[in-house]
Amino acid sequence: MCVPQTKRTGTIWTALAHIITAVIGSGVLSLAWSISRLGWIAGPLTMLAFASVTLTSAFLLCNCYKSSDPNNGVYRNGSYLDAVQRILGKKSAWFCSIIVRINFIKLGIVYTITSAISMRAIQRSNCFHNKGHKDACKYGNTYYMIAFGTIQVIVSQIPDFRNTQWLSVIAAIMSFTYATIGSALGLAKVIENGEIK
User: How far apart are CA 171 and CA 23, in angstroms?
Assistant: First the structure.
């Protein structure tokens, strides 16, 4: 059954904040390092492949935004699952909803592990600065995974969380901040070495 249409409250600024957060936020720290490990040929080709898949997905979603309804005329689909149900039927929507939920679970696990590794890396970096690079500075991931998971569970209980406008702005500011920090650290390393490696 399709969800009733809700009033759209987004502005061009909230849309821009979501785009910045999605593009910069999801992979700016680890994606660049991962792609660099592929080298100068496979790395850029992989980035172009990712970009083409993202662009194709965006065009497909744009084409599914509105659908024709014989009784009511044009209908604006409020979600991806709404579009699947309206265009392909209830069985396809049921199957798609299972896949989407599995993907949400996978993303939750991946972000929890990535966050734990990042928090551990920050703590190790601080340890190296304080005690020197000869110190072992070994820390586990379990504590950070539990802490991040607990925060996720608590924050997920906020009612109507997806409609909080301040969240989009804060997420965009954070994405810009750590993208700037990463770029500055990379530039500093290039200046220190005197060459791009």
Answer: 11
- 4 located within any domain: no
Please check whether residue 102 lies inside any domain of the structure.
yes
User: pLDDT, tens digit, for every residue of 74-128?
Assistant: 878 877 788 888 888 899 999 989 998 998 888 888 878 877 887 888 888 888 8
How much of the chain, in percent, has pLDDT values that exceed 90? 4
SS3 string, 106-131, reads: HHHHHHHHHHHHHHHHHHHHHHHHHH
Q: Give the Cα separation of 109 and 103 in Å (integer).
A: 10
66 three-state secondary structure: strand
pTM over 0.85: no
Tell whether 151 and 124 lie within a shared domain: yes
Number of domains into which the chain is organized = 2
| Run of H or E including 6 | none
Q: pLDDT tens digit string along 40-70?
A: 888 889 888 988 887 888 788 778 877 777 7
CB atoms within 10 A of CB 177: 11
Residue among 179, 175, 177 nearest 22 (CA): 175
- Structure tokens, 10: 């987004």
Whole-angstrom distance, CA of residue 78 vs CA of residue 96: 16
Q: Which residues of 29-54 are buried (b: 16+ CB within 10 A; e: fewer)?
A: beeeeebeeeeeeeeeeeeeeeeeee
